[in-house]
Amino acid sequence: MKTQKFLFLNALLVLVVMFAFTASAYAGGKVYKLGMSLAITGPTSDAGNPISKGVEDWFNYVNETKMLGDDKIECTIRDDQYKTDVTKRNFEEYLDEGIVFYLNYSTGSTLGLKRDFEDAQIPVVPASYHEGNLIDSTYIFLPVATYSENVVALAEYIVANHKGGGIPKVALFIHPSAFGRGPLEDTQKAIAAGLKMEIVEVVEHGKDLDNTAMLTRLLSKDVQYVISHTVQSPVATMLKDASRLDVTAKSFGEKGKLTFLGAHYTGGNDLIALAGDAAEGFLWTCSYNLTSENNEGAKKQLDLAKKYSRDDKAANSHNYATGILMAQIPTEAIKRAKAAGIEVNQENLYNILNEMNGAKEFNSFAAVGPVSYSKADHVGVDMLKIYKVEGGQFKSIANVSSEYMKMLRAK
């Protein structure tokens, strides 16, 4: 009898332990694995570092506020130092770990891994907005307007606002890489399609500490506008040299002077910190909402940064906003999968993104317009703002989108 009682108590204890374990696992919910590889250190870390912070903070916020109920997102973030071979290794290890969504960074690695993304059939959001990412690609979803859209929109703005007659003469100041060269061909195509502008010279900058000769040469060719597509430091050097030589236009398109404009990665608070007063008047396109706009979206960004003890530099960076949006896109797809009662996996998240349009588009406080995708359109935010440095801050002066890029894509 004692033996039977002992066996019964043992069996009961096993059941209690099993029930407790099951209840604990259920209470913990499911864990959805994501991976990200980017340059937290090394070249372009000035962008990659705050992007990683934005991604990390948003996912922490999702989990802590139970945005997905008891389920959580676990996003592993690794530093690749802007090296494509390291990025590829990180991505392959993430696949082995069972990720359902991947966040990438550079233009070189996004282009280099395009076939890998297709083979893995996994949705990918990169921090590179290179137009070429979309060619022969099914699984890459750009969060915002492409570099080509930025540059061609600036060219259209120049043509629309140029005064004094004649065709505006423009120089392009670009990064010596696929990232830098990307928009050149599309700008040339826009001109061939009817955009009334002349590209007088294309300068692939090196590590020059003095741009005097270049600026003098451009003025001798009657160039009035310089569109930059690179990163902040070479633009800051150029702006300081132009200020020293007193060749910066005081008004848009001032004859005999240079009006400076730039696309996404050329601007932001880092440019103002590097160039100081020489940045005054610089015009910049970006699809992200800036904290200097002091609107509701800016407040939400600053609140998130404060919650996770970020310094002012990170909190006010458009690159921090980039990271937030990159993390929000898979979060929203996972939310919609759960709401639809379907499994959160690569295929379902991919299909949900392709349906994120019309009444199903997604609004983010980090961006200047809604995120919208379809099978035929993998560019999220089509809208751009033109910001101008006034009194040491970037201020919005216009909402634009590139009509010529729409025309070129339709062909």
Helix segment count? 15
Task: Give the CATH level 1 class of the largest domain.
Answer: Alpha Beta
β-strand number:
13
CATH architecture of the largest domain: 3-Layer(aba) Sandwich
Distance between the termini: 87 Å
Q: What is the CATH homology-level superfamily of the largest domain?
A: Response regulator
Classify the secondary structure makeup into a structural class: alpha/beta
Rg, nearest Å:
25 Å
**Residues in β-strands, percent:** 15-25%
Overall structural domain count: 2
| Averaged pLDDT | 92
Q: And the CATH topology of the largest domain?
A: Rossmann fold
What string gives the helices and strands in order? HEHEHEHHEEHEHEHEHEHEHHHHEEEH
Report on the biggest sheet: 7 strands, mixed
Protein model, in words:
- This protein has helices spanning 2-28, 45-64, 84-96, 107-112, 114-120, 147-161, 178-192, 212-220, 232-245, 269-275, 296-307, 312-315, 318-340, 346-354, 403-410; strands spanning 31-38, 72-79, 101-103, 124-125, 142-144, 169-174, 198-204, 225-229, 259-262, 283-286, 379-381, 384-390, 393-400.
- By secondary structure, the chain is of the alpha/beta class.
- The chain has 2 domains: 29-145 and 293-377, Response regulator (Rossmann fold, 3-Layer(aba) Sandwich), CATH 3.40.50.2300; 148-286 and 386-410, 3-Layer(aba) Sandwich (Rossmann fold), CATH 3.40.50.2300.
- A hairpin with a 2-residue loop joins strand 12 (384-390) and strand 13 (393-400).
